[in-house]
Amino acid sequence: xxxxxxxxxxxxxxxFLIRFSLTEKGFNIKSAPDGISGLRLxxxxxPDLVILNQILPDLDGLEVCRELKRDPKTNHIPIxxxxxxxxxxxxxxxxxxxxADDFIVKPFSSREVLAKVKALLRRSCLIRVAGTRLFYxxxxxxxxxxxxxxxxxxxxxxxxxxxLLVALLRNKGQVMSRQAILNNVWGPSGTITPRTxxxxxxxxxxxxxxxxxxxxxxxxxxxxxxxED
Length: 229
Prior knowledge:
single chain, alpha/beta, Rossmann fold, Arc Repressor Mutant, subunit A, five-stranded parallel beta sheet, four-stranded antiparallel beta sheet, 45% helix
């Protein structure tokens, strides 16, 4: 598949590094040098993945991430945030809480970028094709079209919220540890903490009210989606 990736980055050397390593593997790359033109490009192209610098000349990268995850036309697109150095790594954690899927810290290698891109696209593809239509207490989840409906109301979820809901539905009645959820939805990563799972569970309960009582917190372990009555 000809995956399309948008890079939003103002440093030409970094754009060149990422573009060279990814085009060599067959990816279709477009780039923008600032947040405003980057937002416009993503909304025009609806790419398969976005690589986004945290620090941009006009609009902060975290604001760009927030806007992309707020828009139902782009909130399904996986995002990798680039943070400037280890001292700013906490901003990568903030980005994850805003809906970003992963982050990398400068300086980084082309090999690291390629590995993270492949892992995110692989998980995104699995979410889209692994199942068909899932039903629960008036909720419809179409894993092929990536659509969630609470009765007739379409629910806007981020890519990770969608993956979390699918994981809970496919393991209905079973307790899932936070680590199992992280591995299932985010993949193995030392940069993402169990707190991220808690924040995404909170978002699901808020966006789909019936899940408020259906997702049970298992103290000091994880979560369980109740069987239907």
